[in-house]
Write a structure and sequence with these properties.
Distance between the termini: 13 Å
Largest sheet: none
Structural class: mainly alpha
Length: 187
């Protein structure tokens, strides 16, 4: 049975939102974003691929998906995020009730832009063959470490500072293993 384009896009986005709302995950994702330059959408997507579809993304896969979405991230997602963050404390007249409404609209636009990035990643996942066995929690940790290493540009010395955040996210993602099944329309 073929999985529809919209089905995999929706499933991966729902998984990302579910993982992100788990205790301590948002803080860990934001720490990795701020401290290591990690693209959180790629991080959560890599967990989704491993946990739900038995696809363990290798460094070459991660480099390719980073390349696929880098222009979108740099030209759309990050500027929206920068505007949203700037409105949190200024410039004048921010912060106030009026600028908070604007900030909320920008946040919604940022989430929409991240959803589009997620859709790009789902397109990539359709072409990957699943592993023969479900991913273990250690497999998920290893994939997330690869994502962080990509962000750190292979500077393994700095990954130690981020291991607890990686573990937090890997554990939360692994708990969402229900409905785990490999993609059926690879090819």
């Amino acid at each position: 049975m073929k999985r529809s384009r919209r089905g995999l896009d929706t499933e991966s986005w729902a998984f990302a939102l579910e993982v992100y709302k788990q205790p301590r995950v948002a803080e860990s994702c934001l720490a990795l974003q701020a401290g290591a330059g990690v693209d959180v959408i790629i991080l959560l997507f890599a967990a989704f691929a491993a946990v739900r579809h038995h696809v363990l993304l290798e460094p070459s896969d991660l480099a390719e998906i980073d390349s696929i979405c880098s222009a979108w991230r740099e030209q759309i997602v990050r500027p929206l995020r920068a505007f949203r963050v700037a409105l949190k404390s200024g410039p004048s007249p921010a912060p106030n009730r009026t600028t908070e409404r604007l900030r909320s609209k920008i946040k919604a636009s940022e989430l929409s832009a991240e959803r589009i990035q997620n859709d790009l990643l789902a397109d990539y996942l359709r072409r990957k063959a699943p592993q023969r066995r479900p991913a273990t929690p250690e497999d998920v940790r290893a994939v997330l470490r690869r994502v962080v290493m990509l962000a750190l540009q292979k500077d393994s010395g700095h990954i130690v500072a981020h291991l607890s955040d990686i573990d937090e996210i890997a554990e939360a993602a692994s708990r969402l293993r229900t409905d785990s099944r490999p993609i059926e329309d690879v090819g």
